[in-house]
Amino acid sequence: MMWGTSIVGFGSYHYRYPSGREGDTPAIGCSPRASSLALYGLTDPPAAAGLPAGLGKHRLGASCLYVNKLADVGLGILRELMDTGHHHVMTELHQP
Questions:
Q1: In whole angstroms, what is the distance from residue 18 CA to residue 29 CA?
Q2: How many domains does the chain fold into?
Q3: Distance of CA 41 to the CA centre of its chain
Q4: What values do phi and psi take at 92, rounded to 5?
Q5: Most buried by CB count within 10 Å: which residue of 4, 34, 42, 56?
Q6: Which residue range forms the structural domain that includes residue 33?
Q7: Is the dihedral of CA 19, 63, 5, 80 positive or negative?
Q8: pTM
Q9: Rounded CA gap, 84 and 90, in Å?
Q10: pLDDT digits 0-9 by tens, 19-57
């Protein structure tokens, strides 16, 4: 599903902060940026702590994983991170 004009998201969940702010967001997502591909929701699960060395060339942001091109990363490890991130949101954070 498209979230805005540039984020492709997979799954969704509704969040609510103690402050009362709430909204909907994709479980995981990606967005092409000028210099790299931004991947959202892959670094949040506890299982993603200490990303595997085999992931390849990447940078970390506050809650994003950035890769310049998919050829720079191990696609099997990236797939695991995507599965783990999606599962984390949909089963551990999802509020019915």
A1: 25
A2: 1
A3: 2
A4: -100, -30
A5: 42
A6: 2-93
A7: negative
A8: 0.84
A9: 10
A10: 999 999 999 999 999 999 999 998 877 777 777 778 999
